[in-house]
Design brief:
With 147 residues, this protein is an alpha+beta fold. The chain has 2 domains: 2-47, no CATH class; 51-145, no CATH class. Helices cover 25% and strands 29% of the residues. The protein contains 4 helices and 8 strands. The strands form 3 sheets. The protein has a 3-stranded antiparallel β-sheet, with no helix packed on it. Strands 6-8-7 form a 3-stranded mixed β-sheet. A hairpin with a 4-residue loop joins strand 3 (26-28) and strand 4 (33-34). The longest helix is centred in the middle third of the chain and has 12 residues, at 56-67. The two termini are 34 Å apart. 18% of the residues are buried.
């Protein structure tokens, strides 16, 4: 949904979130005090999005359970999202998930479905495979990393 939003911007520090008023005067966290006529008014078009938050280990578990793991006694996973993407702790990663895999990843996607080895697939490709196979709904996802 698109809408217009008006921001009042401090003339001294240019911060749109730091202005306060008591009805007569305006002031800012940066110690600026003045009248509303000195305040810069900007209007922006903003869009509200619906995002689905999911923990990284949920993706790992789906891949492990339904696409394969090693056959040795330890049953180690072939795919782990965090090291595959070289992500760090306390981070979030946004994906637009849709039920189709890019044309350059089709061969690797078929092999991935058989054995769970990502080969040349990136994390976005893996999430699109999960969506294409019905494990994730299409949409915007935030994958949260925290351990």
């Amino acid at each position: 949904m698109r809408e217009s939003r008006t921001f009042l911007i401090c003339p001294k520090c240019k911060n749109p979130k730091s202005l306060y008023t008591n009805g007569a005067a305006w002031w800012c966290d940066c110690d600026w005090v003045g009248e509303k006529s000195a305040v810069d008014t900007r209007e922006f078009q903003v869009e509200t999005l619906t995002l689905t938050a999911i923990d990284w280990h949920i993706i790992d578990e789906l891949v492990y359970d339904f696409y394969g793991h090693s056959d040795d006694k330890f049953k180690l996973p072939h795919f782990e999202m965090v090291p595959h993407g070289e992500w760090c702790n306390d981070s979030s990663h946004r994906f637009n998930v849709e039920p189709k895999v890019g044309r350059y990843a089709k061969k690797d996607a078929e092999k991935f479905r058989k054995d769970g080895k990502p080969r040349n697939l990136c994390n976005a490709d893996v999430m699109n495979i999960l969506c294409e196979d019905g494990w994730l709904a299409p949409g915007e996802y935030i994958v949260e990393v925290c351990w």
